[in-house]
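In this supplementary section we document a worked example of the pipeline. Step one takes a protein sequence of length 90 as its only input; no multiple sequence alignment statistics are reported here. Step two produces a three-dimensional model, which step three serialises into structure tokens for compact storage. The input and output of this example are shown verbatim.
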Amino acid sequence: MSNPSRAFYTSSNGDRWLVVRVGERDEIFVRHEPNRASGGQPSEVDIEAFMARGPGSPEGKALIDVLDQLRAEQDRAGMEKLADQQMANL
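The serialised model returned by step three reads:
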């Protein structure tokens, strides 16, 4: 089973950063996928450690943007669920 992910930044050299949900508790991590030419291995780090490295970096700013989007989507989904429950009680 794959973990849901969303790419949020790709650097000019082809490195990619993704937000990844892992585990039963839907913990969120940042996955770095280095470009193929570098031969590096993908790695995961928790959001706090990632942001401590450089919140002002392009990838740090992009992470903040995608987390805001995810929160808005979660809020919208919660409101829709609540509305559905209220309609069912009518």
